[in-house]
């Protein structure tokens, strides 16, 4: 049914919030102070017409905004955007009954996103490549995305070429120092199609092409700078969304670690923190991704002057480091996936480790893990949001705890 709604707030996912007959209604792309006519379906509504603009409305810079599901907040002016995003962290901690001081938001967009995932579909010989519509499986063909780093500018053409060779597929691209690293998931491509796709590595001057987890062609080993080290990562590896984001997160981690002599880097990936920490401390780096820790170890061996790094492949969700195992460390860094590190946090809470630095891409699970640490005798010294997912509701944060 259609209703006229007054927008009074912003939700965690950037939706405008209105009240209708005592219940909250989420209205995408509406802002506080606006009046909209909307089609209401339960707790959600779709704007049919904006009857008045709020004071914080800005003009989106992307022609696909509002259709593509990648960005949610280009319509919000910079100052209120920063206030809202910083507030997401405080809100998550309040939900855990933790009253905390949140540091100012760090803008870490830099040159833009250095990794992107595209869906590629082929129908009647025509290839479409882009992102899904918001809350939909409909594909939006996007020839250019203004939030990507310049090195990813040709990605639409690359994706279409892969689609022409392989049919329907999903493509992940990462901008590295030696060129684009492309990983494709395709539906059982025939050998002749694999060979055709492999030739595109040369034609399109890609650093590496992997299909369904297997490298099929490589002109140059992809490389990434992590401190003084150069890492050659495996296909389909985890990487922070922007180079600036990795720099800012690393700076916060190193500042919090201070003069710690022996550090555990948990959920270490390819080593963005471990390799920088090893410039002054001995590091034990642990992750379930064996290929990632192998790449980290190789980068360490090839970089003169670093202190020792011991790498271990271990599933920290199933087998977290026990409190006794943590006793040798002066500091622990953990940077888990979105699910957080609840089991590991419980062991850290029982330990005697002096400094704990948590890096998180989900304020809710960070707050949950923080509550565990605080209940175990840690004090929160600093909580800093880092915005490398600009114009979206996604957010990174770094929390520094110290044993009381």
Task: Outline the secondary-structure elements.
Elements: E1 2-6, E2 9-10, E3 16-20, E4 23-27, E5 35-41, E6 44-52, H1 78-95, E7 106-107, E8 115-123, E9 126-132, E10 139-141, H2 155-166, E11 169-176, E12 179-186, H3 191-203, E13 208-211, E14 214-218, E15 224-226, E16 229-231, H4 243-257, E17 262-266, H5 274-277, E18 282-287, H6 290-301, E19 309-313, E20 331-334, H7 342-349, E21 355-360, H8 363-375, E22 378-387, E23 396-403
Parallel strand pairs: 7-22, 12-13, 17-18, 17-20, 18-19, 20-21
Antiparallel strand pairs: 1-5, 2-3, 3-4, 5-6, 8-9, 8-11, 9-10, 11-12, 13-14, 15-16, 21-23, 22-23
Helix pairs in contact: 1-8, 2-3, 7-8
* DSSP, total strands: 23
| Euclidean distance between termini CA atoms | 56 Å
Category from helices, strands and their pairing: alpha/beta
Largest sheet: 8 strands, mixed
Q: Assign the CATH topology of the largest domain.
A: Rossmann fold
Mean of residue pLDDT? 97
CATH level-4 homologous superfamily of the largest domain: Vaccinia Virus protein VP39
Unreliable stretches (pLDDT < 50, length at least 5) are: none
- Provide the helix percentage: 10-25%
- Beta-strand residue percentage: 25-35%
